[in-house]
Amino acid sequence: MLQPAVEPGEMLEFEYTLQRVEPQQIDRLEISVVWYTEGKGSEDIGVHHFESVAGPEGLKSGELPLESMLGPRQVVCQLPQGPLSYEGRIIKIRWCARLRLFLRDGREISAEKPFYLGHLTREV
Amino acid sequence: MAKWLRLWGKKKGSRMSGWWVVGSASEAAFFGSLFLLGIVTLTTVVSWQVFWPQSPLRIGFGFWLMVIASSSFIVIGLTAFILQISQTLASPELRSAMLDQAKREHQRRSIGEQLGSLSSLPGLARLTDSPGVKLAYRLAAHQAETGSLILSALFSGSWNTLLAILTVISLQKHLISQPNWFLTVLLVPFGCVSFFSTRWFFRLFRQLAGAGATAVEISDLPLLPGGQYELYLCQYGRVNLRKLEIALVCYEEATYQQGTDIRTERAEAARIEIQPHRVEPSRKIEDLKAEPEKPLEMDCQFSLPSDIMHSFQGQNNAITWEIVVEGESSRWPSFCRSFPVVVYPIRASQADVANLP
């Protein structure tokens, strides 16, 4: 589970488990820790941590093998000093851990768990 | 099977109904066809001229129009095709991670250092390249006001030149007893535009040059939440100010596309008033008078709260901090001058700060 708020520089630890999806159905899985903007402007995105897990056919250098996604898997990364989570008038900066699952039939499933970096934004 | 036949989807919150690959493939096919059309047209037009000089299409306006049109088809088609393919094959996170990796690699190769983890912070180099006389850094003024003055000068100058030429032509026609009444009547609206553009220019000129230049120096950069800083302000020119306000202001800037226009909206998010704590010993704090030989000098101190947002620079969004000086005078129009500064997160390491551009 993610903490609702973490301080800059702290270690972020989270765990994910895949359910109701057979490993044979999966082409690729991406796990990332990202910040993104919301509000009136076009979206900006920054990737702090990125991992790609692929099936044996699609395995490229730097990607983890498909077997590693079976069962609960823990991801740990150290958070940066910024940008801090921010709730402004026309700009909002959000942080989240995001999982994208690319199935062999072309479908894409994504799930994300938001968290606050820093204490500027109070938990709501 | 129904999903295969559905050519368009419906946006449901942050996801689309239907099979997104169909839409992306159709769009990629359209731009691919545009690229091929451009290649075929350009090849045909150019090879006609090279291998068949007797062709009806001579080198002239029509030929160059065809070359420009087919070249634009090639550029637009190829760019959009590559963009569409990359968007279809890679997730936004993967694209962003690859871009970040490429930036780091470029910086490592060019200056032999890794990009810090704070790439979303604006750089310090352009703020700290000018040392101050009394304090560490002299701040550069925001260029927006100067830009509008140059624009108004160019517009007003060109319009007045056009008006002068048309007036001379019209007078000549009248003098040789062949008056052109259409041109004469046209001079009236042209004269109105000329009057208002000239007034606009002089108003901006008075606003900028009338009250004299403002110089601002600061004791340290970047600013950190919870820190205490000194500010020195010097107002030049001949001006007797009724009011002078100094503040550190945070703005949010969002850039977005509206139709074919790109718009930027700006909103004030926070304001910290800065009070002058000492003027020259011979002056009272209420005496806000500047003379050419004796400018108005002010020393200020201010501290930042520990819970303020730091500066942020994204591709489309930004959070900026500026020292804003607002003055009101009985003789000149009121003025507002801003001097950008940067606020970094409180725990930003020296290594991160040093590696910023």
Report a brief summary of the structure.
The complex is a heterodimer of chains A (124) and B (357). Helix content of chain A is 0%, strand content 52%.
List the keywords:
heterodimer; A: 124 residues; mainly beta; two-stranded antiparallel sheet; 9 strands; 52% strand; globular; B: 357 residues; alpha+beta; Immunoglobulin-like; six-stranded antiparallel beta sheet; five-stranded antiparallel beta sheet; 7 helices; 13 strands
Please give a structural write-up:
The complex is a heterodimer of chains A (124) and B (357). By secondary structure, chain A is mainly β. Chain A has one domain. Chain A is built from no helices and 9 strands. In chain A, strands 1, 3, 4, 5, 7, 8 and 9 form a 7-stranded mixed β-sheet that branches. In chain A, strands 2-6 form a two-stranded antiparallel ribbon. By secondary structure, chain B is an alpha+beta fold. Chain B has helices at 2-5, 20-51, 61-89, 92-111, 144-175, 181-210, 350-354, and strands at residues 11-12, 15-16, 137-138, 214-218, 228-235, 239-258, 261-274, 276-279, 289-290, 296-303, 312-313, 317-329, 335-341. In chain B, the strands form 3 sheets. In chain B, strands 6, 7, 9, 11, 12 and 13 form a 6-stranded antiparallel β-sheet that branches. In chain B, a hairpin with a 3-residue loop joins β11 and β12 (317-329). The longest helix of chain B has 32 residues, at 20-51. The chains are: A mainly beta (124), B alpha+beta (357). Chain A binds chain B through residues 8-9, 30, 32, 34-35, 37, 39-48, 50, 52, 80-84, 86, 88-91, 93, 98, 100, 106-108, 118-120, and chain B through 19-21, 91-94, 96-97, 100, 117-121, 252-257, 265, 267, 269, 307-310, 312, 314-317, 319, 344-345, 347-349, 352.
- CATH C-level of the largest domain in chain B: Mainly Beta
Runs of chain B in which pLDDT lies below 50 for 5 or more consecutive residues are none
Shape of chain A: globular
The radius of gyration over CA of chain B amounts to 30 Å
**Which CATH architecture of the largest domain in chain B is right?**
Sandwich
> What is the β-strand count of chain B?
13
Broad shape of chain B: flat
Spans of chain A of 5+ residues with little confidence (pLDDT < 50)?
A: none
The helix fraction of chain B, in percent, is: 40-55%
Give me the strand/helix succession of chain A.
EEEEEEEEE
Quaternary structure of the protein: heterodimer
Count the strands of chain A?
9
Count of domains of chain A = 1
Helix content of chain A: under 10%
**Rg of chain A, Å, rounded:** 16 Å
Described by strand count, sense and barrel closure, the largest sheet of chain B is: 6 strands, antiparallel
Span between N and C termini of chain A?
A: 17 Å
Along the chain, the helix and strand elements of chain B come as HEEHHHEHHEEEEEEEEEEH
